[in-house]
Amino acid sequence: MTQPSEAYKVGQRVAVTQQIPRKQAVWTGRVEGQVVRTEQAKTGSWYAHAKDDKLWLDRLVIRKDDGEVVVCNLDGYTRVDILSDAG
User: Fold this and answer.
1) 52: alpha, beta or left, given left = phi > 0 and alpha = psi -120 to 50?
2) pTM of the predicted protein model
Protein backbone atom coordinates (compact mmCIF):
# COMPACT_ATOMS: atom_id res chain seq x y z
CA MET A 1 0.00 0.00 0.00
CA THR A 2 1.14 3.51 -0.70
CA GLN A 3 1.70 6.24 1.88
CA PRO A 4 -1.03 8.78 2.64
CA SER A 5 -1.21 11.77 0.32
CA GLU A 6 0.41 14.02 2.97
CA ALA A 7 3.70 12.17 2.32
CA TYR A 8 4.11 13.94 -1.04
CA LYS A 9 5.03 17.58 -1.58
CA VAL A 10 4.06 20.01 -4.31
CA GLY A 11 6.79 20.13 -6.93
CA GLN A 12 8.12 16.61 -6.35
CA ARG A 13 8.52 14.48 -9.45
CA VAL A 14 6.82 11.12 -8.97
CA ALA A 15 5.96 7.96 -10.85
CA VAL A 16 2.57 6.45 -9.97
CA THR A 17 1.99 2.79 -10.82
CA GLN A 18 -1.52 1.44 -10.34
CA GLN A 19 -2.77 -2.10 -10.74
CA ILE A 20 -6.26 -3.46 -11.32
CA PRO A 21 -6.48 -7.15 -10.41
CA ARG A 22 -8.60 -9.23 -12.75
CA LYS A 23 -9.60 -12.85 -12.80
CA GLN A 24 -7.00 -13.93 -15.38
CA ALA A 25 -4.50 -11.05 -15.33
CA VAL A 26 -3.54 -7.71 -13.83
CA TRP A 27 -3.89 -4.42 -15.66
CA THR A 28 -1.05 -2.04 -14.87
CA GLY A 29 -0.87 1.67 -15.63
CA ARG A 30 1.94 4.12 -14.97
CA VAL A 31 2.01 7.91 -15.04
CA GLU A 32 4.93 10.20 -14.31
CA GLY A 33 4.92 13.90 -13.53
CA GLN A 34 5.13 16.69 -10.98
CA VAL A 35 2.90 16.85 -7.89
CA VAL A 36 0.38 19.69 -8.18
CA ARG A 37 -1.47 18.96 -4.94
CA THR A 38 -2.51 16.25 -2.54
CA GLU A 39 -5.96 15.92 -1.07
CA GLN A 40 -8.37 13.69 0.68
CA ALA A 41 -11.75 13.84 -0.99
CA LYS A 42 -14.98 11.96 -0.60
CA THR A 43 -16.47 9.83 -3.31
CA GLY A 44 -20.10 9.52 -4.28
CA SER A 45 -20.12 6.05 -2.73
CA TRP A 46 -21.82 5.53 0.60
CA TYR A 47 -19.69 3.88 3.26
CA ALA A 48 -21.06 3.12 6.71
CA HIS A 49 -19.62 4.96 9.69
CA ALA A 50 -17.28 7.15 7.64
CA LYS A 51 -17.11 10.94 7.82
CA ASP A 52 -20.26 12.40 6.22
CA ASP A 53 -21.34 8.81 5.42
CA LYS A 54 -19.01 8.81 2.41
CA LEU A 55 -15.87 6.92 1.47
CA TRP A 56 -12.85 9.23 1.63
CA LEU A 57 -9.85 8.61 -0.63
CA ASP A 58 -6.33 9.99 -0.68
CA ARG A 59 -5.70 11.61 -4.04
CA LEU A 60 -2.54 12.75 -5.74
CA VAL A 61 -2.88 15.32 -8.53
CA ILE A 62 0.08 15.37 -10.91
CA ARG A 63 0.97 17.24 -14.09
CA LYS A 64 2.60 15.20 -16.83
CA ASP A 65 5.38 16.64 -18.99
CA ASP A 66 2.89 17.35 -21.79
CA GLY A 67 0.74 19.46 -19.41
CA GLU A 68 -2.03 16.90 -18.87
CA VAL A 69 -3.32 16.88 -15.28
CA VAL A 70 -4.06 13.44 -13.80
CA VAL A 71 -5.89 12.67 -10.55
CA CYS A 72 -4.73 9.40 -8.99
CA ASN A 73 -6.72 7.70 -6.24
CA LEU A 74 -4.22 6.10 -3.88
CA ASP A 75 -5.19 2.62 -2.77
CA GLY A 76 -3.64 -0.70 -1.84
CA TYR A 77 -2.77 -1.39 -5.47
CA THR A 78 -0.92 1.91 -5.97
CA ARG A 79 2.81 2.46 -5.76
CA VAL A 80 4.28 5.97 -5.75
CA ASP A 81 8.01 6.39 -6.37
CA ILE A 82 9.54 9.79 -5.66
CA LEU A 83 11.91 10.56 -8.54
CA SER A 84 13.12 13.98 -7.31
CA ASP A 85 12.40 16.42 -4.52
CA ALA A 86 10.53 19.67 -4.95
CA GLY A 87 12.72 22.31 -6.54
Assistant:
1) left
2) 0.78
